[in-house]
Amino acid sequence: MKKNKISFETGFWAGFETGNPFKAVQAFFDFADLDYYKQNLSETVMYSYKRKVHKQDNPSDVFVLYTTFSFFIKVCYCLKKKNKKWKVTEFLRSEKVFHFSSLTKEEYENPFMVFQKAFDEITLEEFGFFLVQILEHSLSPHFGDPESDVTTPYIHLIKMLDAAELIRERGVKKIKKANQIDVVAE
Question: What pTM, to 2 d.p., does this model score?
């Protein structure tokens, strides 16, 4: 039986399509850096609770953010499944650890744990609903609290951003059999 390859629709930000989640992560961070995503996600969530319209001068920026994050969440969902077959290479002394302050020591050593924990607690559909909620509320001039918890998905999304950036920086190794490891991307 032939497996269907998932397209992450990276053409939106990278100009090419890929079914490889590691290439999709690279394309995601080539489009914008970690700080940009964290700052814009945080601002969008904060504007969900305000009467002001977020990015009033250009609200389409919020839609672009929504689109990139919806694709990023799909990539993270696939990375959750890669935990047993892939290993992140050892940390580099030049890593900017303060960027990854949302991660625990164990998550820093094995960033794949972040995706596992996130999707054990929140489904792919719930992450999608979270994005729709913050988009709707941040672009509305009317006050209204989001109908459900936005804090938990927000925290998981920040952690997934840190974990994905860490995977991108370090690269990954494919685990073939016991004690055999091939370096795939660095």
Answer: 0.81
